[in-house]
Design brief:
An 8-stranded parallel barrel has the order 1-2-3-4-5-6-7-8, surrounded by 7 helices. The chain contains 11 helices and 8 strands. The chain has 232 residues and is of the alpha/beta class.
């Protein structure tokens, strides 16, 4: 059975827990996401620990954001870990995104548009011209023009971004919550089925899976729901 297009966010308290969660969910999902906290705590060793023998795709979510030369060096440094996907902030600009793309040619560079924890009032206070979907669309176009082959946007904007960038770009959507799940610190959210229907390629889901009593069963249930949706 083909794994579901889900990246499970391993926001684990320690390396052993992260590796255990990864082993439980990898039969059901295509991708494991390693974020900033886990990577900074354990370094490159975390990649081998969560990849295990499964060969699951690794999504290294470091959200690099610095001058182009620094991002180029950082992207080159982590490319040796063979992540399938590496994130940079779209707000770093075209030259920075291009530097990451050129320094990690075997890795899909995903540009993060607007964080899913931000709402319209946050954008106003930050001085970003809104509304959010317009800001995301502008950043998406800039990123793709600079060579990014993936974009990270909330489920609310995925349909507009797909219309903007066309079918060849991978759209990754955090802020995905199964029906009835606590939204926690996310404010622009949707169900997995809705995000996929709107054009997302990869759904980032963390606590609804890793916070469950049985993360493997939770991943399997969401994967089965997505298969039913795509089949109908």
């Amino acid at each position: 059975m083909t794994p579901a297009p889900i990246a499970v966010a391993l926001d684990a308290p320690d390396l052993e827990t992260a590796a255990r969660w990864a082993s439980l969910v990898t039969p059901h999902v295509s991708t494991i996401k390693v974020g900033l906290e886990l990577y900074l705590r354990y370094g490159p060793d975390v990649i081998a620990s969560v990849r295990g023998a499964s060969g699951v795709q690794i999504f290294l979510d470091l959200k690099l954001h610095d001058i182009p030369n620094t991002v180029a060096g950082a992207a080159k440094a982590v490319a040796r870990l063979r992540p399938a996907i590496l994130t940079v902030h779209a707000a770093g600009g075209a030259a920075m995104i291009r530097a990451a793309v050129e320094s990690a040619p075997q890795t899909k560079i995903a540009a993060v548009t607007i964080l899913t924890s931000l709402d319209e009032s946050d954008l106003d206070r930050m001085g970003l011209a809104g509304p959010a979907d317009e800001a995301v669309r502008r950043l998406a176009a800039l990123s793709v023009g600079a060579g990014a082959t993936a974009l990270v946007c909330s489920p609310n904007e995925v349909a507009a971004v797909r219309a903007e960038v066309g079918p060849g770009i991978t759209l990754i959507t955090p802020g995905v919550r199964p029906q009835g799940a606590d939204v926690q610190d996310q404010v622009r959210v949707a169900t997995p089925e809705q995000a996929l229907a709107d054009g997302a390629d990869l759904l980032v889901i963390g606590r609804p899976i890793t916070g469950a009593a049985d993360p493997g069963a939770a991943a399997a249930a969401i994967a089965a729901s997505l298969r039913r949706t795509t089949a109908s």
